[in-house]
Amino acid sequence: MTKNNRYLKRSWLFALILFFSGCAVYAGLNFDQQFGKPQPQERLAAANSPIANHYLDTVKPIIENRCVVCHACYDAPCQLKMSSAEGIDRGASKDKVYEGTRLLAANTTRMFIDAQSTAEWREKGFNPVLNERIQSEEANTQAGVMARMLQLKQAHPLPEQKVLNHEEWDFSLDRNQQCPTIEEMAKYEQNYPEWGMPYGLPQISDKENQVLMDWLANGALMATAPQPSASTLSKVAEWETFLNGSSLKQQLASRYIYEHLFVSHLYFSDEQQPTFFKLVRSRTAPGEPIDLIATRRPYDDPGTTRVYYRFQPVRETIVDKTHMPYALNKAKLTRFNTLFIEPEYMVTSMPSYHPDIAANPLIAFKQIPVDSRYRFMIDNAQNTIMGFIKGPVCRGQLALNVINDHFWVFFVDPAMANTPSVDDFYETQADNLRLPAENESNTLPVANWISYSKQQGRFLKAKNAFLNDAFKNGEHLTTDLIWDGDGYNDNASLTVFRHFDSATVTKGLVGSQPKTAWVIDYSLLERIHYLLVAGFDVYGNFGHQLVTRMYMDFLRMEGESNFLSLLPADVRREQLAYWYQGSNKHLSDYLQGDINQFDQPTGVKFHTQHPKNELFGMLQEKLKVVLPDRYDFTQSQLAKNGSLALYKLNRLSGKQASLLPEITFIMVEPTEPNQDAELFTLIRNSAHKNISSLFNEESNRLPAQDNVTLVRGLLGSYPRAFWHLKASDLDTAAKQISTITTEEDYRLFLDKYGVRRTSPDFWSFSDMLNEINHNMFPVESGLLDYNRIENR
Predict the structure, then answer these.
(1) CA angle 9, 10, 14 (to 5 degrees)
(2) Averaged pLDDT for residues 719-732
């Protein structure tokens, strides 16, 4: 290219940029001339007023079931969180929360935490989706992004195609989002006429659209969540009194409880319609309005001499992907007293909030007995593990390719670990158990990775030496080591499913015997929580996120090696080789060295040529009293009526399994009248040579070994596909899906039984699905997320 041509090209690009930016400026000036300059409006109507009731009873349900299903949590497109009145008024941002390549940590934009008013969000760069100029019907429908998006969809509904054109529609997780401001809407409408809202889904009904347009035209007045009842507030007062005792012992215990429950939704289990709360730190004592302490992490310096732990009502719609219900009641309060207040231990001073101390719970809380801490965590083990499954770290394939697609989790019996020698051992290893979060949100990955790799190696060598001494001759190395839930607690075992870029954890041993399993002890459970929940910053830089992911490799392998220690020594080596086929030399050396230095023989007596399967069977038998059957498809009415189709679905493997999406929700309508529809989930478990590769997962895939797990009910927050069929069609459907060998075969199956994102019946099916799920599990259920529905 000649110098003159390069000059002309640069001039043309510069002119183009000026043109489009000029269009935006002109549009802004034009709106200003027509409707005045923008400023945030007062949109919250008085409680119990007709306007508020209209919003809550008529408008909000439409927004929840048509908008919130895509616009909630950190991964809401354009950060537009429509799950609360305040979130709708906040509007949208072009900045992404999940940005894995940023060199410096981003500013936090957490709803209800990092700003308390719409004006403050405007200062942080959020753009309105509601009209903020003169409040006239014309302005409200022409100068508001939400109104324009709805009108665009009505004017340009989805094309009449079963599968949308992949060149025109992008449904990938990290798709390029336009996030137009009102000044950019005319250009957006011209360039993307079919991209009205809901994006890539059928338009809402004329009636629903009219309700929303009338509401917008009248100023989009809303109401915030109702205040808790007097009965609920009295229970809140009781708990806040407990959590804010003045003794150092009480303060330390409350700090520990808070740092483990800050992501949970607390509720009182004796209420028929519970109100959910978040446990927060406040500068003000109970009885006064909450003055929120907003820090990146729950253990960051609060900047005040006294912290108060308060119950803040959840003001957002409950969505499944972030919902972690945690029941409170009289028995739980008694339990907390038993664990933290009644034991005789001295607290001489409160631990520092400096990251070197606060990021390491084994140092910060060493004054609390290990037994108390461990029992607190496993009492509600599902909730503890759910923190890293449903917390902010869970989003994205890079974050989750650190775990297998299906594995079981067991826990070391706390009675076996409740000895002074165990406490002393943890104290000697405090320096080796430091976590990446001590480096806060800006981290250099390579240097830190080397450092943490060495310290984890030192810890495992010390741990193996300690265990070699504790389990001489394998006399105590039996299934007695495994917690049985004390005979009543169904948190004693868990099943984790990974769905490529999301995951699910549930109680019990769900599905067929998996490839791998973890046995978790106190230090491992505590480090997982502080690595992936308390210490993880979703706004952190690339290094912080990468080191967190890489460190989790260590913790996974530690949990796996704990499980392997119950097997014969030669089987341990065989299983490791099987689990880590084709791993790099560094990892192989680590597995053969640091992990495998425990050489005591197992005390478990095996009688077959398949010790791992035999061990799983022993553990299933040991835990059978506390194994829930909630997800057991054989307990469904269809199975009880003799249907073999469910068994056929559960046996899909290889090519048939690999063609399925990660999560398929199935609704089976009864043949007989006056019977309820049944829901099932078909989960694809993707097989891998190993899961030690950061960026090239596909090269480790073994699709010929893929299989599925069929469960009763809905399991997972992000459905990829829906089936809707009659019970009388189930046998035929199971036969057809078991013979698919190509993508075209799968499409033909969906033609007959699928509910695609383009289906005219999509929204009615969605409403029925969510209603059945909510009626079955009113406390645990939340709205599903539709951002990952496939276009096939």
Answers:
(1) 120
(2) 96
> How far are the Cα atoms of 37, 111, 247, 789 from residue 120, in angstroms, in the given order?
17, 12, 38, 34
Render pLDDT for 232-250 as a digit per residue (tens, 0 to 9).
999 999 999 999 999 999 9
| H/E run at residue 681 | strand 678-685
Identify the CA nearest to 109 among candidates 85, 129, 135, 80. Answer: 80
pLDDT of residue 390: 83
Q: Which two tokens stand for residue 640?
A: 């009880």
Q: Name 92's bridge partners.
A: 127
Q: State the amino acid at position 21 in one-letter form.
A: S
CA distances to 222, 492, 509, 516, 632 from 628, rounded to whole Å, are 42, 10, 8, 21, 8
Per-residue pLDDT, 15: 40
pLDDT tens for residues 32-91? 989 999 999 999 999 889 999 999 999 999 999 999 999 998 888 999 999 999 999 999
Work out the number of other CB atoms within 10 angstroms of the CB of residue 525. Answer: 22
Instruction: Provide, for the chain, the percentages of residues in helix, strand and coil under a 3-state DSSP scheme, each rounded to the nearest 5.
Output: 45, 10, 40
Residues 6+ apart with CB under 8 A from 642: none
Q: Which residue has the higher pLDDT, 207 or 476?
A: 207
pLDDT of 281 higher than 50 = yes
Query: In this structure, what token pair is assigned to residue 266?
Result: 């607390």
* Closest listed residue to residue 517, CA positions, set 481, 551, 555, 556: 556
DSSP state of 354: S
Q: Which of 335, 332, 346 is nearest to 249 (CA)?
A: 346
* pLDDT tens figures, 668-706: 999 887 788 999 999 999 999 887 766 677 888 899 999
Which pLDDT tens digit goes with each residue over 293-327?
Answer: 999 999 999 999 999 999 999 999 999 999 999 99
What is the reported pLDDT for 199?
95
Contact at 8 Å (CB) between 510 and 364? no
pLDDT in tens, 166-199: 989 999 877 788 899 999 999 999 999 999 999 9
Residue closest to 790 by CA, chosen among 760, 752, 746, 727: 746
Full DSSP string of 724-789 = EEEGGGHHHHHHHHTT--SHHHHHHHHHHHB--TT-TTHHHHHHHHHHHHHHH-TTT--B---TT-
C-beta separation of 77 from 199 below 8 A: yes
Q: Which pairs with CB-CB distance under 8 Å and at least 24 residues apart come from 72-75? A: 72/316, 72/317, 72/319, 72/321, 72/322, 72/783, 72/785, 73/319, 73/321, 73/322, 73/785, 74/98, 74/392, 74/395, 74/538, 75/173, 75/395, 75/787
Q: Which tokens in the block code for residue 168?
A: 């025109």
> What's the gap between Cα 156 and its chain centre?
34
CA distance 158 to 31: 29
* Paired residues of 680 in beta bridges: 666, 712
Q: Note the pLDDT of residue 20.
A: 41
Helix (H, G, I), strand (E, B) or coil at 148: helix
- What three-state secondary structure class fits 140? helix
Half-sphere exposure of 398 (CA within 13 A, CB side): 15
Tokens 């007023």, residue?
Answer: 49
User: Percent of the chain at pLDDT above 90?
Assistant: 69
CA 756 and chain centroid, separation: 24
Give the integer Cα–Cα distance in Å for 699 and 723. 31
Domain ranges of the chain: 65-217, 227-350, 363-628, 633-776
DSSP assignment of 168-191, as one string? Answer: T----TT-------GGGHHHHHHH
Q: Name the average pLDDT for the chain.
A: 89
Q: What is the pLDDT of residue 592?
A: 56
Written as six digits, the tokens of 78 are: 């354009």
What integer pLDDT is reported at residue 13 of this predicted model? 37
Q: Residue 32 corresponds to which tokens in the numbers above?
A: 């200003």
Q: Retrieve residue 469's tokens.
A: 């001494």
